[in-house]
Amino acid sequence: MYTLKVAWRNILRHKRRSIFAILTIVVGVANIVMFGGFVEANYIGLRESIIRSQYGHLQIHQKGYELNFRQEPNQYRLSPESAQQVQALLETIPHVLITSRRLEFTGLLGNEKTSRAAIIRGVDPDSEALINSALTIIEGVDLDPDKQEGVILGEGLAQGINAKVGDRLTLLGTTVNGVMNAVDVEVVGIFQSFAKEYDDAAMMMVLENAQTLLNTQSIDTVVVLLDDTLALPEVVRAVARESQQRQFDIEWIEWFRLANFYQKVVDLYNGFFLFINLVIYVVVLFGISNTMIVTVMERTFEIGTLRAMGMRRSGIVTQFLTEGIMLASLGAILGIAIGIAFTWLINSLEIMMPAPPGSSKGYPLRLEYVEEIWLNSVSIVLIIAFFATLFPALQASRKAIVDALRHV
Amino acid sequence: MSFIQVKNLTKYYQLGKNSIQALKNVSMNIDEGEQLFLGGPSGSGKSTLLHIIGCLDRYDTGSVTIDGRDVTLTNDREMSDFRAFNIGFVFQNFNLLPVLNVFENVQYPLLLSRAISADQRRKRVKEILESVGLDAHAEHFPNELSGGQRQRVAIARALVHKPKLLIADEPTANLDSTTGAVIMALMLDLSLKHGSTVIICTHNQELLVQAQRCVMLRDGEVTNDIVTQIQSENTYVYA
Ligand SMILES: Nc1ncnc2c1ncn2[C@@H]1O[C@H](COP(=O)(O)OP(=O)(O)OP(=O)(O)O)[C@@H](O)[C@H]1O
Ligand SMILES: [Mg+2]
Q: Among the three residues A191, A221, A248, which one is the final residue of a domain in this structure?
């Protein structure tokens, strides 16, 4: 049969109409490709900044920690030996880039005039600096293992007690034996993370100094940073397997279970994306059905002729469906190509975006290449084309032959 | 039994609240190989009758059988297949597919009836294009041809699958009289060679007068059915 030939030649024959329909699809699909790439880049950016500004990829605790540490913080810490074994184990697992210890507690930070409750984290300064690469020191310097009494304060906390770099403060805490204790600290830096609420109360200090204050050798957490976020499930499987084999009494929690607002942001963006998709697809639907309705109308006499020659109704439907889907395929494939080209162009221009809320830094506009979105939009456009064409085609095939022949 | 039997055929058209009776009690028998001309004033029901015999339209009462088959007892699909194998049409406006060239247009019915191999198909198309004198124009598209040439293509297309019945509704109305005469002669000649039965409706008095068999309609009724035995076959063939 001539189905493909006739479809292709008719598309060529009505150039202006075909170009208009194809252009509608191209613009729609290219926009989906670019906007999808933008959304994906934001997910990745947000994800990585969350991982690197506080959670790491994976946090490992003593078993029972998550359930009990609020009531009994001292009972569920990792002993120095366990911590060491865990770190040794992690070093054997592929994709693990770095591990770092943390001791978490609350204390009272103050000077002569005022004091504030602070969420304090004792850290290994060198490895923590790598995990916290999205944490910005806005004044002073980062922690230094050689300067035990050094601390860095969140921007809000520093403002709250009016502390500046170089100030000496007193930190009050409770030892694991339940005795009040105090250490002198010196503000060496002020930081900003991605979340202002956190910066309003957060403080970091060198692990050993924190352990002195709490009179313990234990830690809360071994934080793990990977070289690739996508390798996380694989690493978690390895940790589960190995820890069971070595009978470690540990539990772990992934970054996304800690940062539940990430999922909310993703849901919000997905909602936007869905809405934009819907609008675009409605336009595509009207574009294609409009074109096909005109096409079918115009070829009424041809339909009558073919039917007289003995073509079945299904033959007529197939002919127009082929034409609609051919048109849509052209548009969709061209749209993907142009979307990719623009994605590349925008990335290479390195346009700077203003700082997002809660952050001080601008960032270059980047669009990701998301194959899944490309495939989806091609399939959806084809499905739309199928239905947009099906109804005019069915109508054409049901037209009485004599009426179709009379139509000139 | 005749090849085509039309018995007490009536056909109504519904136009809003009015119904128009386009055919009233039409009866006729047409033998295999016969070449019948249908005449009568405009609106007398010629096209309506052709469409019904050509299995393109339904009727209200009476019966039509072709080759012993009641043509309205079947569904659309069977009707389509019946047309594809048994009937060829020539239209007043040629009705060639504009996006297909001459060869492709003529080959189309062979694809629809799916009866023969690709090689045979090509051979068949070549033969019939030669017999309508257009073998040199096989690659041309309809818009590159004159009206007469287009109708030659249409005739080739209508006969390429050797249909038992050829139906032509005013095939020369859009041609000048000289070209029309040549085309008419060609069509009759070719269908004679193929043994196809032919029904042609026309306003051309000359053709009606010369016809082997001429049926006249008026207001949906047969007013005259003249069979001229003495007419020699050759008289009109090269008119
Ligand atoms: N689709 C239709 N709807 C309503 N009435 C119709 C329809 N087709 C034909 N008629 C009517 O039926 C009658 C016969 O029409 P038909 O087309 O068969 O005449 P005709 O002899 O072919 O005329 P012409 O020589 O002008 O082609 C006319 O009165 C016409 O108006
Ligand atoms: Mg007519």
A: A248
Contacts of residue B71, defined as CB under 8 A and 6 or more positions apart, other chains included, come to B52, B53, B55, B64, B65, B79, B82
Q: What is the pLDDT of residues A140-192, one digit of tens each?
A: 999 999 999 999 999 999 999 999 999 999 999 999 888 999 999 999 999 98
B236 touches chain A (CB under 8 A): no
Query: Identity (one letter) of the amino acid at A177?
Result: N
- B43 Cα: distance to centroid of ligand 1 (angstroms): 5
In degrees, to the nearest 5, what angle opens at C-alpha A310 toward C-alphas A304 and A313? 65
A56 within a domain of the structure (yes/no):
no
Confidence of residue B127 (pLDDT cuts 50, 70, 90): very high
Question: Do A165 and A98 share a structural domain?
Answer: yes
Site from A11, A309, A312, A322 to mutate, B interface, most B CB atoms within 10 angstroms:
A309
Q: How far is B214 from chain A (nearest CA, A)?
A: 24
Q: Is A57 among the domain residues?
A: no
pLDDT, tens digit, 9 for 90 and up, residues A80-110:
999 999 999 999 999 999 999 999 999 999 9
CA of B200 to the centre of ligand 2 (A): 11
Atom of ligand 1 nearest to the CA of A403: 1
Query: What is the value of pTM for the model shown?
Result: 0.81
Max CA pair span of chain A: 102
Do A87 and A193 lie in one domain? The reply is yes
- Would residue A364 count as lying in a domain? yes
pLDDT in tens, A272-320: 999 999 999 999 999 999 999 999 999 999 999 999 999 999 999 999 9
Shared domain check, A283 and A179: no
Ligand 1 atom 7, closest CA: B13
The boundaries of the domain holding residue A82 are 64-248
Q: Looking at CA atoms only, how far is residue B228 from chain A in angstroms?
A: 31
Measured CA to CA, the distance from residue A233 to residue A239 in angstroms comes to 10
For the cut 50, the answer to whether the pLDDT of residue B234 exceeds it is: no
Q: Do A310 and B112 touch (CB under 8 A)?
A: yes
CB A78 within 8 A of CB A222: yes
- The reply to whether A256 falls in a domain is no
Q: A12-64 pLDDT, tens per residue?
A: 999 999 999 999 999 999 999 999 999 999 899 888 888 887 789 999 999 99
Q: Is B43 in the pocket of ligand 1 (CB under 6 A)?
A: yes
Residue A161 token pair: 């007690």
Of B81, B97, B104, nearest to A310 by CB-CB distance is B81
Q: Give the Å distance between the CA of B85 and the centre of ligand 2.
A: 24
Q: Is the CB of B191 under 6 A from ligand 1?
A: no
B48 ligand 1 Cβ < 6 A: yes
How far, in Å, are A36, A239, B41, B128, B147 from residue B91 at the CA level? 54, 81, 18, 18, 12
Report which protein residue has its CA nearest ligand 1's atom 6: B13
Whether residue A242 is found in the same domain as residue A266: no
Are A250 and A86 spatial neighbours (Cβ–Cβ below 8 Å)?
yes
